[in-house]
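Minutes, project check-in
Item: structure for the 227-residue chain
Input as provided by the requester:
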Amino acid sequence: MDTFGLRLRMERERLGLSQTAFAALADASKPSQVRYENGGRYPDGLYLEKLAAKGVDVQFVIAGEKNPTLPNRTLPLSGDVRIGEQEYSTIKVYDIDASAGLGVMPVSEAVADQIAFTRTWLIRHGIPADMSALVRVRGDSMEPTIPDGSYVLVQFNIDQSNLKPGIYIIRLDDAFVIRRLQLSPKRGGNWISLISDNPSYPPTIINNPGDTSFVAIAKVRTIISEV
């Protein structure tokens, strides 16, 4: 049966997105998206308005009619560059060195370059191009995961109040470092461990994550290095 929920799922699958990534386009949660698709709940107008602003064919979702203003439904969203039938979004490469040792991260406002990623890949992984950047990593503390001289694709719009395990660029006192973040396993625990993948470097324990001396600047989403 052709229903709202089925058409919503079809549109999500057309874009190649998970339920989590698709829901994020409208600032919704995965559980809400699941209910929308199985017919257990209908979204409000704001949800649909946000999807439409991101290039989702809301007309098809609501009425089952393809929006004629979207000429090629195989393309997910509008990008910065189009080559043939594929669209790309550019991500800035900043002249920044994130320390993977004991040093600091010197920052320059200048954009050194730009690299284009396919829009479908960015959407599938839930990476917003305008809130991301490529940053060079210097040092050996994150080897072998991140070799010295590699670039990392980082995402800046992270929820400081709800950090997840992962690799982050972190401001610690006056230094900027890149470390793997591990949270207290106990409910209500109040410590964070900053771990180097290189065992030669001891972990740093943050006993008060709310202290302003500790700030997670950006989360590493992928690593680009020479082979």
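Outcome recorded: The chain is about 20% helix and 35% strand.
No further action items on this chain.
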